Amino acid sequence: xxxxxxxxxxxxxxxxxxxxxxxxxxxxxxxxxxxxxxxxxxxxxxxxxxxxxxxxxxxxxxxxxxxxxxxxxxxxxxxxxxxxxxxxxxxxxxx
Length: 95
Prior knowledge:
The chain is mainly α. It has a domain at about 5-65. It is about 65% helix and about 10% strand. It has a two-stranded antiparallel ribbon. Helix 1 packs antiparallel against helix 2 (about 45-85). The chain starts with a helix and ends in a 12-residue tail after the last helix. The mean pLDDT is about 75.
């Protein structure tokens, strides 16, 4: 993953959170688009539950991204430090 992927996940979380807030405010029928077709949703609870699950999954994905970058940075730092190590070995003398 890269920084663009992290930004994309952040954006998706914000969009889902916005949708959740809008649904909570809505009074009346709600239509949800699935596979290009709009379906009438009879229960707001089901929609809010689905959105909360989606937000939770995106947050887990974001946490995974943070863990990956932390592990990656640690590996890079260790490699960099190891490459600076020069052993103090005397040169072989010719006979």
